[in-house]
Amino acid sequence: MTQNTHEQIRHSRSSDISDHRRYWWHQVGDRHYTPTIYSDLSDHEWSLIQDWFAATEPLQGGGGEMSIPMISVLQGFIVGSGIRSIVQLGHYRGYSTLLIGFMLRRMGVERGLVSIDLDKGVTDYVEGWLRRAELESFVTLLVSDSAAPAMPAAAEAALGRAPRCVIIDSSHQYAHTLRELDLWWEALAPGGMMFLHDCSEYARRFDTTKQGGVRGALEEWLPRHPEAGVIMLAGDPHADGPVAYADGCGLCMMQKPMATVSGTAG
Fold first, then answer.
1. Would you say residue 264 lies in a domain?
2. 18 and 75 inside one domain
3. pTM metric for this prediction
4. Which residue of 2, 121, 204, 261 could cross-link 213, Cys pair, CB 3.0 to 4.6 Å?
5. Which residue stretches of the chain have pLDDT < 70?
């Protein structure tokens, strides 16, 4: 990708956008506007994201980045509600980690994000981008299985408080996702939000164990947790007419009930 092409991506001039599949959001529909995840960036921050696109495109698997619909939903909750303690399960090469770090810096929230990934190689790679972006005081990276029992305590120690937002976008495997749900729902602060990517029927195929992926894990977990306020979103971005959520991989949003105060009036 050339610098000029990346400027076209930022401004979503879809007739000029590369046909690379990572830019699908810009290629579908009449989207001649800049999504706020990009328009809110400073020139320096956007330049770094341009460099990240260019550096990751030749790599095997590309950047593996989160979709624009999902990162836009997260931006609304994080910035709109001033969420100051976030745990991300799975950062791969760091696209969403960088963007959330930029959000936290605009909010003036240091130690606001802990991102956990099993792969030390990609974590070292993301660490280099965080240094370039001067986000080290806003983001902490941990190398671990995101379903390891010790992780909630490690994340809370790094954040200085319980997480109010947990983002699950890691293995996409049924059994592993079940463990993550049990572990991090307990760790989530009352009133906090949990977001799971790849929860659609289509995304079941991402589970290499063929056990149903994130969707299958939710189908087993949710009946055991009727207290979870849940919204499941999925849509076909190529469908005729508007869709409420333009990512066929889907998004699940859940809110943990607020803590009740004993002795207060109803």
1. no
2. no
3. 0.91
4. 204
5. 1-17, 236-242, 260-266
